[in-house]
Amino acid sequence: MSAVSVRLPDSLYQQVEEIVRKEGISIDQFISSATAEKISAFATQNYLEERAGRANKKKFKEALSHIPNIEPEEYDKL
After folding, report:
1. Is the dihedral of CA 56, 57, 58, 60 positive or negative?
2. Average pLDDT over every residue of 11-21
3. What sign results for the dihedral spanned by CA atoms 27, 29, 32, 33?
4. I need a surface site. Which of 3, 13, 14, 63 has the fewest CB within 10 A?
């Protein structure tokens, strides 16, 4: 495990202190969890951008053409 010194604006630090007090967790746990969430968001964005780069409109329309043109069930209507 690595130790990191982080400078936060006082307003952010006060909010962190309030959250960890209410949640009964340490600041280390909070920062670790927040970092993991942000990394996950970046990874998801990168994955979706990579998938979008492989998109093929012709193949998409071909796949849609196999879906029957029928009314949805009553419970599935908007």
Report:
1. positive
2. 97
3. negative
4. 3
The residue-averaged pLDDT of 47-76 equals: 94
- The 3-class SS string of the chain reads CCCCCCCCCHHHHHHHHHHHHHHCCCHHHHHHHHHHHHHHHHHHHHHHHHHHHCCCHHHHHHHHCCCCCCCCCHHHCC
- In angstroms and rounded to an integer, the radius of gyration of the C-alpha atoms of the chain is 23
Helix 10-23 with 27-53: angle, nearest 10 deg:
100
How far apart, in whole angstroms, are the C-alpha atoms of residue 72 and residue 61? 20
% of the chain at pLDDT higher than 70: 100
- Rounded CA-CA distance 31/71 in Å is 49
Residues 6+ apart with CB under 8 A from 31: 6, 16
